[in-house]
Amino acid sequence: MSGSKLRHTRNNYFSYAHEATLVKSGDDFFKRAVSIIERSKHTIHFQTYIFIGDDTGNLIIDALAKAVKRGVRVFLLVDAYGSNDLSSHAIKQILKSGIEFRKYSPLFNKYRIRFGRRLHHKILLSDEAEALIGGINVENKYHIAGTETPWLDYAVYIKGSPCHYIRVICESLWRGKGYRGVRKKMRYHLASSAIDKTAIPIKISQNDWLRRKDRISKSIRHELRHSHISITLMASYFLPDKKIRTLLKNASKRNVKVRLILPGISDVQLAKRATTYLYAWMLRNNIEIYEWNDTILHGKVNLVDDKWASIGSFNINHLSRFSSVETNVEVFDAKFCNTVKKELDTVISKCSKVINTAHLQKMTQWEKFTCWCAFYFTRFLFRLEFAVLSKE
Hints:
Layout: H1 3-9, E1 14-24, H2 27-39, E2 43-48, H3 55-69, E3 73-79, H4 88-96, E4 100-104, E5 118-119, E6 122-126, E7 130-134, E8 154-160, H5 162-175, H6 183-193, E9 200-208, E10 213-214, H7 215-225, E11 230-234, H8 242-253, E12 257-263, H9 269-277, H10 279-284, E13 288-292, E14 301-304, E15 308-312, H11 318-323, E16 324-331, H12 334-349, E17 352-353, H13 356-362, H14 365-390
Parallel strand pairs: 2-3, 3-4, 5-16, 11-12, 12-13
Antiparallel strand pairs: 1-8, 1-9, 2-6, 6-7, 7-8, 9-10, 9-16, 11-14, 13-17, 14-15, 15-16
């Protein structure tokens, strides 16, 4: 790892993992999740944005309930807004089984309505020994059996020292008291984990603006600024701010190959149209655009120079940067990055490339106008939410 990257990560909870594996949505993720739960002996933290009581949700509930029967203490934290569709029957099932359950940031309380800060990250942690971190929610859409294909998304399986800091994150959010109460434990674990330097260099990064954490966003900007060969970004809701756009433009001017994998179909049409508004700018700056049309693209994967990868829940937009609680895994390992590169190349081979002339010819004046409206309306909504959050 280069000296510049080491300096960049020194104060950002850099440690070493015994194992880091790229995990894909579908059976790959959920079989691994159940296996982790089955191996647990002491504690499990499961935190997610969406948890639905469908077949996939019941699969996880059953595995967690069995862990409780073995004497494992299980903490399940879900976002109140994202998991609003979790039925009362499923919640009763969860509580009856002995799982300790909470909803993060309920929309309504005694004093006010809360629309702002949301728990958007997805973490499964077992015994401070192994963890899954990514963008995959607990819902059938991410785990479709048979011939159907689940939403495209990714996570990272981690084993080893970084799990100590992941526990700090999970406990802090479970307690709802921020991060101050566990900083001493965090420093101790980080100091002890730095001894083993034969494993995979990893950084667990967070964005939680209200807690003064902007590490994922800073890391992405740092890597884009210092890119030399290639940038590949997979983004589900891609609405970059001016700084990111400038960094991508400058990278392209330096002859860095810039590729974006974006959704051809989307579950949020407003976001899709707002992103499409930027296509003309991207194409003018020699940024390659590939649209994934097989399923909904929900992945958030960043790869720079095939030496740095960042995977997790963080979207490149204002919502993830200023509103949500996000967690990404940054990996500084050539072998892991090569696996990510092969996966992204495979995805690109199945995408439709957006060609400048064809794109402009295909769009009517009305479509261009609606994309313009979507872009500026989305920016307005982000600014409005930022103003609301600032007063909380």
